[in-house]
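Batch manifest, entry 17 of 40.
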Amino acid sequence: MKLIAAFLFVALLVGGYVVRQKDGREMTLDACVSEASEGFAASLPPEYAEEITIAKIQESMTPLCGELLERPDVASAPDEDMPRLVSETFRSHPETFHPLCNAVVDADFALLGELARYVRKQDRARFRRELCRLGVEYIDERSQIDHGRFVTDHPDLFAPMCGAGIHAGLAEDPVLRKRLTPEQMRSIGRRACKRALVTGVFDVSGPGGFQQPRIDQPAFEELVFRAVVAETR
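Output type: structure tokens
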């Protein structure tokens, strides 16, 4: 589930790194973009450094800083209010969220490695498009994403990404390679993952979200087994 883990960073981190001048001077757009981008970049996992340049982050951060600086309540707001103000800006102006979300998702795709072969091009395109479009609706007042509700509402969006790992595992089994076609393996992965996400067997509703999911491993393995049986009847 590495692919969908990165989505956590976008709203959660930006809310903490949009800063204001402390000496009474008005924050400029360039200063907001520079400081917010540096903080955001420093908080991403190390492996993302080569995939998301500071220039790309700055480009993606510019729409958000532009909208925030237009708000009369930002300059005087205490630091603890910034996550709420960022969340409100994301929700009222989704175009400020999409560039940041897309940049992180693109980096995650680049880091897939061998797993990328098990995610179809059309599924990657839909995931990128729909994740960033729909995700803004699930950002709360703390600038955090309600992953559990997001997954429950849209399991078909996440199933192909989760299912890629199952597909890869099935493809490594010499017996199953003879019995199952690649399309059947893909179907098994999606079926098992969708069920796991909907039922909470793969639970992302906790504070760790996609990064630290709670997995009922025996139940998950049972879902995969049932999906294999259903596909081979």
